[in-house]
Amino acid sequence: MSDVVEKTLTALPSLLSLDSQPGAAKLSSTSKLGNLIRGITELTSKHEEEKLIHRELASIKEQVSSPNTSMRQMKELMVRAIYCESLGYEASFSYIHAIKLAQQGTGLEKRVGYLAVSLFLNENHELLLLLVNTVLKDLQSTNLIEVCMALTVVSQMFPKDMIPAILPLVEEKLNHPKEIIRRKAVLALYKFYLIAPNQVQHIHNKFRKALCDKDPGVMTASLHIYLQMIQENAEGYKDLTASFVSILKQVVGGKLPIDFNYHSVPAPWLQIQLIRILSLLGKNDQRTSEIMYEVLDESLRRAEMNHNITYAILYECVKCIYTIHPKSDLLEKAAKCIGNFVLSPKINLKYLGLKALTYVIQQDPKLALQHQMTIIECLDHPDLIIKRETLELLFRITNTQNVVVIVEKMLEFLRMSTDDYTTIDLVGKVAELAEKYPSDCVCFSYKNYTYAPDNEWFIETMNTVFSLSGDTMQPDIPNSFLKLLSEGFESVEEDRKLRLFAVDSYVTLLKGETGKLPQFFLQVISWVLGEYSHLSEELKPATVLELLQKLLDRKQTSSETKSWALMAMTKLCEGRAGVSVAQQVSETYISSMDTVLRQRAQELQHLSQDSELRARVLPRDADLEPLEVDSSLSFLDGFVSEALAAGAAPYKPPHQRQEELSQAKVLSLEPYGLSLPISMSSCSIADRQSPTLLSMSSGLSGDSTDLSHKGGSTTLKFEGVKRVWGKEGYLAQKESVEEAVQVEAPSPLRSTSQQAEVVGSHSQTPTLTPTPEPEQEKQQLASSLFFGISSQSSVCLMGKSGPTPQRFRRKAKGQSSSSGATEQMSNSVVFTSTTVDNLLCNNPPDSTITSEVDVSSSKHTSELPQGLTAANGTCDIEAELTDSDLKGSSPPLSGDNGLENADPDPHENLDKPQGVCLSSHLPAELSGLCRSEITPLCTLQNLDLSACHVHREDTIVLVVFITNSSDSAVQHIRLDLDSELLEVSCVSESPAKDVRSVAVYLYSLTVRRPAVHVELAGTVSYQVPVGTPQTAQFSYKLPLTAFIRPLTVSTEEYGTMWLAFSHDTKQNLTLINDGQEPLVATLNVLRKKLQLHVVEVIGVEGILACKLLQDQPCLMHFRVHEGALAVWLRSPVPDLPDCLIYHCQRALQEH
Amino acid sequence: MMQFMLLFSRQGKLRLQKWYVPLSDKEKKKITRELVQTVLARKPKMCSFLEWRDLKVVYKRYASLYFCCAVENQDNELITLEIIHRYVELLDKYFGSVCELDIIFNFEKAYFILDEFLLGGEAQETSKKNVLKAIEQADLLQEPRHEFFTVPVY
């Protein structure tokens, strides 16, 4: 033991030398903590440790609450408390004292106080409120260290509601002369931005100042904020692209002070942050991407060194190159880079290579082909992480030809996986694949093609998925499986076969051992048997009933599963035998404590006796018409009108009643309170429908018409209000419900249009003959995995969907075993001499503890100067920076950090004159109308494309100009426009197909689905007299406001419409205060910018109306409330209110 | 953004923990237990990255200590590995050939260094010189007040 003490003392010279404070108190306190630590390591059992810590905690508790304890002692006590907490024992009594120490202590005491606070509490802890005053005081301190401490704690945690209290002080620190203060202030603001973005909205220009800070550290810190903001809205920061590029150029060029170097690579953290920002900015934006090509190329070139840090930069570059608008030579370099990663013997690089491959596979499926043998090897890699990533890669390249092999590999992994999270994820993916492909199988199965998915494969795969997944499965997987089964595919015969096969396989399963089948699976089985077992001729209902009864009798069956089984039985109880079984079963459960079970048992009892009623309630082979749910409860109309006629008060939704209670005055009702949506799904669950359909239809009621919004709790007195629950108003509302139901219940049947394609590639199928050679096996596997990628360029790709991950939530599995392990660990003696090893020493990682026990401390010290090397040996020895290096005088960034913000975009200069001359080509009927600026779309070898949109009263006309910049004529111009959100119809094409100067194309646009901005994608193809046909793609974006026109209605009409519309949104906007009456001024701005019609302004309220072309109204209600403008938008069109709110905000911001 | 950082010994003893996301003590304990187990079970030649729940875990062993960070999915794994290495370098420079005992007995110092290097889950300062300067300045606070003022600050 004394040995250890001695070592401890020698190992801590730095502490002692720093601790210049003489005095016994200090020393003894150090040893108090030391004693505690040593004491714990001597113990042999968890129980003893508990006893010791509880004793320790009791002593700490007594001392911290004693009034005689000095701050110095308090500091020492806090350190001990932190230690106890980190061992897993609660010391919550000390939290308040930690705050006190931060408040009252000085110097190091304060520092420990703040540290304890940051370790003890998280940002949601209520005690944190008590820290606010301390932070306020310290932010104002003249002592820089105290300011630093305050900023440090603020950047880690701060109560959201108290941000306004310290925000001005933190903002002020952005101008502090010391860079460390500025840097910490920037990070504190970053933290505020993360937890309460609204609070720091007004200081965005100060972020720009931080970005231009002369200190690289401050600038780097500001990039965290920019990354975050650009992630949320890349559009808003496109103007900064050139600045980011210029910073990156300087960093890559080694213009930063040398102490930002890391292993002789200039500021890698900064580089990676910048590349990430650039990739966000350049995504789907050719113009912005073009600005960054050069610097990315430079980064790639410079990063060709053999060190982890350069690989990190390379990896980020590759991701960026594949994210932004593609450029062929960069893509080529990136692909080479990925190749190097994949082929690298270093496992970390191999993993990243696979990841990069997964990432780029969508754009470049051929790349997977190049590395197919490596991928096959990785599929059998001993490290599960590599294997898992390979499966992820394969998942992305699945097509009809390889799906069977890939699913098999995934199931293989699933059988080994012990991690719930991976299981859930993989199960979801397998189910997705299995469900995606059986629609193609129809044409395959009769040809007996071994490697194509068919009915049997589908059912068997799903069986494996269900049985492997345990009860952790996402509930939507069984739901969509049942939906698929019940809706079927195109061929009736195939559907029947599929269902029959499912029934047969489930009967076999139920006859076997059912103990291990998860509840989910049993529910699926019950439903399928109840619904489809009649398809099987040899299967008697009595057999099925018997099987279900057996299931009911099992102890492990959950009551939910039991109710599924009872439902199935209700559908099956036919004939005398069936009825008697049904009676028997229902008698057992009719007195069950579970109400659902009891209900099911009742149903079973009644329906089994009354076969006529049963046939009506549960018709067999029911046509799969979607169940219409009358969410407006219109069948109660008669009842309501009767009640109203008898003098009953009209119905008011709960929130309105509350408001009326809380505010007596009619005209100042608060319309923007929280409204509680009332779910009105009223479906009879006994219907012969799949559960999915049920949930779908009940979901409808939420979307379509929410009655809680009816009866409009606006403060405006609408004429229609009183009558709304009378006959007229009610009818109007019912119509809107029906409309909504019609719109939102499309038939989800899948089309199998791929048939032709599949048959076409069928002939290329390889015939596989088994060979014993392992190498050949691999090649065979490769050919089955990568089949289809080489022959057809369009690979079936899907996004990374999977179940949405839930952070830090997981079923407690294997908890008991792991706690056992912890216990074991704490029992083992920790202070063997390995713990004294120099962390950075060149120790072989596998050297055992015991072999080094005898190493004396003197020998150990002699080992120390060996330098820095990672134990894993993956890191190079770092050349230690000498002092002179640290003070290196390499040129700092130029004064303004090289941010030539004023540098105008060169493109704009070019466009201006062109725009002028193009406008003369506008057709005469459009020339006088309001139009957007002419913007270039794309530039090709011979052609320039530009476009603008012209606002007409009833439509938007898109004008595309094609300018031939060369002397030779261009022929066969074809222009195709397409958009998800827009309906594009051609108005007039330029008659000439050959263009010598300018051709004009006109298109009329209508909005299909509103979005804040709507985008068109287009392709242009043409031919020059000599040469190959050329094509190019472009996109054009319009704001939704282009489609907005004023809607002239009277206040009364407005009132009626308001009540009929179901989609709404509310928000507060800022008022414009420029002399006039704020409401009028604000409304005027909005009216002008967005083309709205002001219906009426009454006191502090205004109502406006507009329509989306053509004739899709949106109503707006504005009210001044506590200095802000409360807005409420309503429309029959989903998303329209939200989009308009956005544009209102923009319009007011720009004002 | 880094979600949390854990330092633990080969015996599974937690030496340091820093959480950048608000979690309850119970969750923290569960995560720690789970991760320590997973990482310790991995063989030396295996990949330093783990996909764990929806996060990525990057770990590295230095002598008897494991340094283990959880980052978000879009974060760069390799640079996280270098963050760990830079932290070890900082510890080494500060303690002078750091060993596990330094961290055990002076865990508060290790926390101070970490706070100067990473703040709120993001790299605050990557210049080794600047971090150490900040720490040294703060350490000087132990001096009586009047002495502090004579020391040039930064």
UniProtKB/TrEMBL annotation, chain A:
<feature type="region of interest" description="Disordered">
    <location>
        <begin position="883"/>
        <end position="912"/>
    </location>
</feature>
<dbReference type="InterPro" id="IPR050840">
    <property type="entry name" value="Adaptor_Complx_Large_Subunit"/>
</dbReference>
<feature type="compositionally biased region" description="Polar residues">
    <location>
        <begin position="814"/>
        <end position="825"/>
    </location>
</feature>
<dbReference type="InterPro" id="IPR002553">
    <property type="entry name" value="Clathrin/coatomer_adapt-like_N"/>
</dbReference>
<feature type="region of interest" description="Disordered">
    <location>
        <begin position="744"/>
        <end position="781"/>
    </location>
</feature>
<dbReference type="Pfam" id="PF14807">
    <property type="entry name" value="AP4E_app_platf"/>
</dbReference>
<dbReference type="InterPro" id="IPR028269">
    <property type="entry name" value="AP4E1_C"/>
</dbReference>
<keyword id="KW-0813">Transport</keyword>
<comment type="similarity">
    <text>Belongs to the adaptor complexes large subunit family.</text>
</comment>
<dbReference type="GO" id="GO:0016192">
    <property type="term" value="P:vesicle-mediated transport"/>
</dbReference>
<keyword id="KW-0472">Membrane</keyword>
<protein>
    <submittedName>
        <fullName>AP-4 complex subunit epsilon-1</fullName>
    </submittedName>
</protein>
<dbReference type="GO" id="GO:0006886">
    <property type="term" value="P:intracellular protein transport"/>
</dbReference>
<dbReference type="GO" id="GO:0030117">
    <property type="term" value="C:membrane coat"/>
</dbReference>
<feature type="region of interest" description="Disordered">
    <location>
        <begin position="799"/>
        <end position="825"/>
    </location>
</feature>
<dbReference type="GO" id="GO:0012505">
    <property type="term" value="C:endomembrane system"/>
</dbReference>
<dbReference type="InterPro" id="IPR017109">
    <property type="entry name" value="AP4_complex_esu"/>
</dbReference>
<feature type="domain" description="AP-4 complex subunit epsilon-1 C-terminal">
    <location>
        <begin position="1045"/>
        <end position="1149"/>
    </location>
</feature>
<keyword id="KW-0653">Protein transport</keyword>
<dbReference type="Pfam" id="PF01602">
    <property type="entry name" value="Adaptin_N"/>
</dbReference>
UniProtKB/TrEMBL annotation, chain B:
<dbReference type="InterPro" id="IPR000804">
    <property type="entry name" value="Clathrin_sm-chain_CS"/>
</dbReference>
<feature type="domain" description="AP complex mu/sigma subunit">
    <location>
        <begin position="1"/>
        <end position="141"/>
    </location>
</feature>
<dbReference type="InterPro" id="IPR022775">
    <property type="entry name" value="AP_mu_sigma_su"/>
</dbReference>
<dbReference type="GO" id="GO:0030121">
    <property type="term" value="C:AP-1 adaptor complex"/>
</dbReference>
<dbReference type="GO" id="GO:0035615">
    <property type="term" value="F:clathrin adaptor activity"/>
</dbReference>
<keyword id="KW-0333">Golgi apparatus</keyword>
<comment type="similarity">
    <text>Belongs to the adaptor complexes small subunit family.</text>
</comment>
<protein>
    <recommendedName>
        <fullName>AP complex subunit sigma</fullName>
    </recommendedName>
</protein>
<dbReference type="Pfam" id="PF01217">
    <property type="entry name" value="Clat_adaptor_s"/>
</dbReference>
<keyword id="KW-0168">Coated pit</keyword>
<dbReference type="GO" id="GO:0006886">
    <property type="term" value="P:intracellular protein transport"/>
</dbReference>
<keyword id="KW-0813">Transport</keyword>
<dbReference type="InterPro" id="IPR044733">
    <property type="entry name" value="AP1_sigma"/>
</dbReference>
<keyword id="KW-0472">Membrane</keyword>
<dbReference type="InterPro" id="IPR016635">
    <property type="entry name" value="AP_complex_ssu"/>
</dbReference>
<comment type="subunit">
    <text>Adaptor protein complex 1 (AP-1) is a heterotetramer composed of two large adaptins (gamma-type subunit AP1G1 and beta-type subunit AP1B1), a medium adaptin (mu-type subunit AP1M1 or AP1M2) and a small adaptin (sigma-type subunit AP1S1 or AP1S2 or AP1S3). Binds to MUC1.</text>
</comment>
<keyword id="KW-0968">Cytoplasmic vesicle</keyword>
<keyword id="KW-0653">Protein transport</keyword>
<comment type="function">
    <text>Subunit of clathrin-associated adaptor protein complex 1 that plays a role in protein sorting in the late-Golgi/trans-Golgi network (TGN) and/or endosomes. The AP complexes mediate both the recruitment of clathrin to membranes and the recognition of sorting signals within the cytosolic tails of transmembrane cargo molecules.</text>
</comment>
<dbReference type="GO" id="GO:0005905">
    <property type="term" value="C:clathrin-coated pit"/>
</dbReference>
